[in-house]
Specification:
This protein is of the alpha+beta class. Helices cover 20% and strands 20% of the residues. It contains twelve helices and 19 strands. The strands form eight sheets. The chain has a four-stranded mixed β-sheet. A three-stranded antiparallel β-sheet has the order 15-18-19. It is globular and about 70 Å long. It starts with a strand and ends in a 15-residue tail after the last strand.
Length: 420
């Protein structure tokens, strides 16, 4: 088995294929703190891609309420239980095991991934029990049927006097699409080599001509974002709206444009882009890319269940009000630091956060023009100055596509108030 470096785990791990460089990598940051659970993103994706016979239960984009919701139901709990069963008591993080560099920013994960837990039981022929190469399971049909189960269900009712940052009773919305992983479980498990990463943007796609509907990819994807379509007997999944990414969609005007779920987001929680990669598939140093800055420099955006080992390329700014142990299980040991930096943002981070949903065009780089101080707020007993900086977003050619100020403009309507 080849050894690849997984920076989210802070170590090398086993994977069935050699790491490979792509020209760029599709990536996104979702700010959970802003999500209002309106499902506009889900419906935008549904009406675009999954409205045909056999796709009735498919939601390539879904928003589920944690901790009880899930699509399919209990997808994360079941995978965590499988990994714990394969490595009892060993699924732990060594937060001090990293060097703080982009190679190990969160420490080292000392447990086993979905690949390594299967490898521990792999026979001489390279298979597990004669078939699987990745630890996983196939959800039942019933588990796919209720994507909105437990929506808005809290853990309990809050007690009097409980305030941020943590509530006694809590829930939050988790927005999910295919993570277009650097080391996809679906790709590793496919016996037909029907799944591949596009070299130009790292988007994970299924070759429908090669697929035979064995559902090994459905079993292997820990996020359950590969789905079986019974009418065609093939796998389908989020394709990252690649015609929009390419600029070949007639509605894009020939320029790289955000996906449908990103562009439709009412709460302005999403920022999608393309990042440069190194020879091993990791992100190349590019602090002028807003996604790189949030993930690798501010470390305010974290991967979802990094311990699975797939190195997902969709990142989340964690919710401030949720108990930290739950967030650390979901996003790794960087959760507290991410919340601290979001709660008390640096001057640059505050400006970059204004880029979320500021344009449908993909922002490849940014600049910040400094402005005057306009306010001062108190964060956990400390004064924080607010400056009316201007963040400027550029496309792949360096042309300006968006310009946003930190201080929102206020307009006063002239004349008399409408008294109807």
């Amino acid at each position: 088995m080849p050894q690849v470096h997984n920076w989210q785990l802070g170590r090398d791990m086993e994977y069935v294929h050699e790491a490979g460089q792509t020209e760029r990598q599709f990536a996104a940051v979702f700010n959970i703190n802003r999500c209002i659970g309106c499902q506009t993103c889900s419906m935008a994706c549904k009406s675009t891609w999954t409205f045909a016979p056999g796709q009735e239960l498919m939601w390539w984009n879904n928003v589920e309420t944690k901790p009880y919701g899930g699509y399919p139901q209990n997808w994360d709990v079941k995978t965590l239980e499988l990994l714990e069963a394969a490595n009892p008591g060993g699924q732990t993080w060594n937060a001090g095991g990293g060097d703080g560099t982009p190679k190990a920013p969160y420490g080292r994960f000392d447990g086993t991934t979905i690949f390594e837990s299967a490898d521990a039981k792999r026979g001489a022929d390279g298979t597990v029990a004669g078939e699987a190469t990745v630890t996983g399971y196939i959800p039942t049909e019933e588990e796919w049927k209720a994507p909105n189960a437990f929506e808005d269900h809290a853990t309990t009712f809050p007690k009097q006097g409980v305030t941020l940052p943590e509530h006694e009773g809590w829930f939050f919305y988790l927005q999910r699409i295919c993570n277009h992983c650097t080391y996809p479980g679906c790709l590793a498990a496919c016996p037909r080599n029907a799944i591949y990463k596009r070299p130009e943007d790292g988007i994970v796609l299924v070759d429908q001509e090669r697929c035979r509907g064995y559902r090994k990819c459905v079993e292997a994807c820990p996020y359950k974002k590969t789905m079986y379509r019974p009418t065609t007997r093939t796998t389908e999944k989020c394709i990252a709206c690649y015609p929009r990414i390419e600029g070949t969609d007639p509605l894009t005007g020939g320029v790289p444009t955000e996906t449908r779920c990103m562009a439709a987001c009412v709460g302005k929680i999403r920022l999608q882009g393309l990042v440069k990669t190194n020879e091993d598939g990791s992100w190349a140093d590019d602090p002028k890319n807003p996604l790189y800055y949030m993930v690798h420099e501010e470390k305010v955006a974290l991967p979802l269940y990094p311990q699975f080992g797939t190195q997902p390329n969709v990142y989340y700014i964690p919710p401030r009000w949720v108990p930290r142990p739950y967030l650390e299980q979901m996003f790794g040991p960087g959760a507290q630091q991410a919340i601290d930096r979001y709660t008390k943002p640096s001057r640059r981070l505050l400006a970059i956060l204004q880029l979320f949903r500021a344009s449908r065009r993909i922002v490849f780089s940014y600049d910040i023009e400094r402005g005057p101080k306009f306010d001062e707020i108190n964060v956990n007993g400390e004064a924080v100055d607010l400056f009316d900086d201007t963040v400027i977003g550029y496309d792949s050619t360096g042309a300006e596509i968006v310009r946003v100020n930190v201080q929102e403009p206020v307009s006063e309507r002239p004349g008399k108030i409408n008294s109807i």
